[in-house]
């Protein structure tokens, strides 16, 4: 299935039905009172987060969603039928923005979250509503309220605990396919991964987290080069960042500094997230250097950066990496729960 994380749609709510002007006409009651019913309410257009979806593909080819109008009221105090609501299912992590004004309408983060994009117009009151002691036979009713129409941009930001950050062909897809059941496309050329992939990493009984394999970042990604700005937004929702850098790179420290600078220029707040470095392809080093990194490599990174030499192919160093990621995620979840007052 094609991954779609950005789409613009047009939504319109239904108009409210007009109230009715009517009077009772029954045998032996030639002057029956007012009996005009209220109009029905127009239908609304609503977003709902569905945990079984992970792309906005369904909305790309169906961009116009118009809810039906409410029906007018009828005699005998019969209310008009309400217009049915339109419920659009989207993946959790979807942000809705008014395309014309730039106003953020809301976010849907948890399964079942709902957001009303445009609310249906209220139905007008029938003349029975306006009966009073001084006006026993009103001959007027309210019209229904008009509906609303707006263009809405939907943007999906993946909800994952760990985001893999690295240059193209750094081994991110190989790593996530080894740690989880995800099976992204893997090949020996850059930009093999063109869309994000999610995988569940099992740490132990009732212990697991979600890892996101994101397309490779190149220098200038924050300016949109290589569609970098489309991919960097997914990192904003990750609790922990795992930089994936081949240990055989000419200068792993320079690669780390470049990736960090791209994140800083895109969104400086991402630098406050916990981050670690997985130095991949450790199996290509001489056996005596695999247990501990040579000082020449360690000296190229800041002293506070956690380095984990790993090999997805040879299954080297994966368990300590998973355990440390899990510790960071637990700390992030505890902090989030404390901040929300739970």
* Integer average pLDDT: 83
Strand order of the largest sheet: 10-11-9-12-13-14
Please identify which CATH superfamily of the largest domain we are dealing with: P-loop containing nucleotide triphosphate hydrolases
Query: Which structural class do you get from the secondary structure elements?
Result: alpha/beta
- Separation of termini? 37 Å
Output the radius of gyration: 29 Å
CATH architecture of the largest domain: 3-Layer(aba) Sandwich
Number of helices: 6
| Strand content range | 15-25%
Might you state the CATH topology name of the largest domain? Rossmann fold
How would you portray this structure in words?
This protein is an alpha/beta fold. The chain has 2 domains: 1-156, GTP1/OBG domain (Spo0b-associated Gtp-binding Protein, Chain: A, Distorted Sandwich); 162-339, P-loop containing nucleotide triphosphate hydrolases (Rossmann fold), CATH 3.40.50. It is built from 6 helices and 14 strands. It has helices at 57-60, 172-179, 228-235, 252-266, 295-298, 318-339, and strands at 6-12, 45-49, 64-66, 86-90, 94-98, 104-108, 114-118, 149-156, 162-165, 197-204, 207-213, 240-246, 275-280, 306-309. Strands 10-11-9-12-13-14 form a 6-stranded mixed beta sheet, with helices on both faces. A 5-stranded mixed beta sheet has the order 3-1-8-5-6. A hairpin with a 5-residue loop joins strand 5 (94-98) and strand 6 (104-108). The two termini are 37 Å apart.
For the structure shown, list the relevant keywords.
single chain, 342 residues, alpha/beta, Spo0b-associated Gtp-binding Protein, Chain: A, Rossmann fold, 2 domains, six-stranded mixed beta sheet, five-stranded mixed beta sheet, 14 strands, rod-shaped
């Amino acid at each position: 299935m094609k991954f779609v994380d950005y789409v613009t749609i047009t939504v319109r709510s239904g108009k409210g039905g007009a109230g009715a002007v009517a009077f009772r006409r029954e045998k032996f009651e030639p002057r029956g009172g007012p009996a005009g019913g209220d109009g029905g309410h127009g239908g609304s257009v609503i977003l709902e987060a569905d945990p079984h979806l992970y792309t906005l593909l369904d909305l790309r080819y169906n961009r116009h969603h118009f809810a039906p109008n409410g029906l007018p009221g009828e005699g005998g105090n019969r209310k008009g039928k309400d217009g049915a609501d339109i419920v659009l299912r989207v993946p959790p992590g979807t942000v809705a923005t008014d395309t014309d004004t730039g106003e953020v309408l809301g976010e849907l983060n948890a399964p079942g979250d709902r957001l009303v994009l445009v609310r249906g117009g209220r139905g007008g009151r029938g003349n029975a509503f306006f009966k009073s002691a001084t006006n026993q036979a009103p001959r007027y009713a309210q019209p229904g309220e008009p509906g609303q129409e707006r263009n809405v941009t939907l943007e999906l930001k993946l909800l994952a605990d760990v985001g893999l950050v690295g240059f193209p062909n750094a081994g991110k897809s190989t790593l996530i396919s080894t740690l989880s059941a995800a099976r992204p496309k893997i090949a020996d050329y850059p930009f093999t991964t063109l869309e994000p992939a999610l995988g569940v990493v099992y740490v132990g009984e009732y212990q697991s987290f979600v890892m996101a394999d994101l397309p490779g970042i190149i220098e200038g990604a924050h300016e949109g080069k290589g569609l970098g700005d489309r991919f960097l937004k997914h990192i904003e929702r990750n609790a922990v960042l795992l930089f994936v850098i081949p240990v055989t790179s000419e200068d792993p420290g320079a690669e780390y500094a470049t990736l960090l600078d791209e994140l800083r220029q895109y969104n400086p707040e991402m630098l406050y997230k916990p981050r670690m470095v997985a130095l991949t392809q450790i199996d290509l080093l001489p056996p005596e250097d695999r247990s501990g990194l040579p000082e020449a490599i360690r000296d190229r990174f800041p002293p506070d950066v956690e380095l984990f030499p790993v090999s997805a192919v040879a299954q080297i160093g994966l368990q300590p990496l998973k355990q440390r990621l899990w510790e960071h995620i637990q700390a992030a979840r505890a902090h989030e729960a404390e901040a929300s007052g739970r």
